[in-house]
Amino acid sequence: MNSQRGSQKTKLSFSADDFAKALDEYSYDFRRGQVVRGTVYAHEGDGAFIDIGAKSPAFLPMREIFLQPSENLSEALPLGEELEFLIIRDEDGQGQVTLSLQQLEEKKAWDRIADMEDDNQSVHALVTGVNKGGVTVNVQGLRGFIPRSHLMERKNLEGLVGQNLIANFLEIDPERKKLVLSQRQLAKSTRIGQLEVGQLVQGEVVAIKPFGVFVDLEGVTALLPIKQVSKNYVESLGALFHIGQPIKAIVLSLDEAKGRISLSTRVLENYPGEMIQDSNEVIASAEARRDRIGKNLS
What we know:
The chain contains seven helices and 15 strands. By secondary structure, the protein is of the alpha+beta class. Strands 3-2-1-4-5 form a five-stranded antiparallel β-sheet. The chain has a five-stranded antiparallel β-sheet with strand order 8-7-6-9-10. A five-stranded antiparallel β-sheet has the order 13-12-11-14-15.
């Protein structure tokens, strides 16, 4: 009996000062960049206090909450609600850390996007604005950019505002908050995946160079090398082709890794030089010629 009373006396003698001293001696090790769980403890005019189990409530500034100015703090963060927060400032002199909901959501979004890039996934990008270089987009809450050269529609950029585009990633840099995407590269990758060597394709001449003709195949550009135009020597590609001209050719080779497609019309010739003498006839009867040559593309 005496021992029990002694034990009770010991417990009662543990004063508030002792408790405070014990708290001071305990190391919570809360640090910047750490994700913690906490409970909304109190509201203030410029933010909220969050109980994260430290000796002082943490502070969540209004600017670090996903709130519109007109929204009500008590409705967005009800007292007693438990959430995850990101510590964005180490303890001050009173042992109080500063938290953020906004930066935590951004961090999670960057992590999700990095995983999507690793898995070669595409993403939906909502066009929010236009500038001289391209369009700004919203991707899972993050601000991104698609350069004009990587858009399928490059003339009427204003008409893209409000549209959801499917794109893939060109550059992801969370430290600099830089997110660059490409719509054309995705279309190119998809289109190349639909092609195979020996396939007859139809496109449009978009450029003529001394070494060959560039052909647009529904968003992806292929090259018809000058040596693959005819079995005979071609003196001038400009004499045979013009910009905007429709053309049919055989897929000679594919390099998906580099995004390169090589075409040939020489394999469609019935005799050497036919493309030079009567290219219209070769193109017009390309389907029948393709069936005739079968898999022999030499």
